[in-house]
Amino acid sequence: MALLPLRTVRLPTATEQFYDGWLADLQTHLTAPGADWYRIARDLLFEIHYPGVGDYDKLLQSPATPEATRVALLSLDPWNVTLEPEYYAEVDAERFARVKPLLWLWQGFDRSPLGNNVHLGVRFRRLLAPHIFARVGRNFKAFQYVEFSFGYNLEVGDDVVVHRNVLLDDRGGLTLGDRVSISDYANIYSHTHSIVDQKDVTNAPTILEDDVRITYHATVLAGVRVGRNAMVGANAVATKDVRPYHVNVGIPAKSIRVKPSAPPEAYVTERVARRDTRES
What structural domains does the chain harbor? Predict the structure, then answer.
């Protein structure tokens, strides 16, 4: 199988410089003492979705503005919307209120024409991530339509890549180790519902250790630990821990092989301890 490393793609120098300046300005605004993240998110989404239209407040208050347009304008402001995690019983209202405008800004950016711009989008999300997550390492890369629950319960290591349309549910806590790769349409959960009563929710930390790969449309359920350098195959559902260097596939996911690069201990068969019942 051929190695196909990613190509280096460059934009015109003037364009790159302009994008870098715009992102630097945004970072300055977000980190300024007393920064109002709600106002920043509202104004930036207005500029993105209604470029060159004019003043937000004047347009909103004008009698000539159609009601549907007013609804759209109001919905650009994080104060005027609700997000699903706000309804969860265990939400830390104060912590969520802090990150909510940036979650709304992240989603609004993704749903704008700018969200398709890989060069700009990766850098934009990388800029927001440290203000949302509990921790994020260097060179974080997220593509379009990645969503979180709370955001503040998510820890991300170095060189992590999260592809399109991924759900990172951090209700119970979610940790992504260094160099974790999560492919398109994967779902990583840290909460589960009782089969008897849907309102009976169990939160359990989910951990993807270093160098883990979760492939297309795979699901990792709450409380699962995917060991170092392990892989969960396409469409698989990991209901139990995945051993380091093992490749698990199917529903429920089971080990079908061990990576050739695995150390000797990865091949050791797991045994259940048995009590010796012989009489002395």
Answer: 133-259 (2.160.10.10)
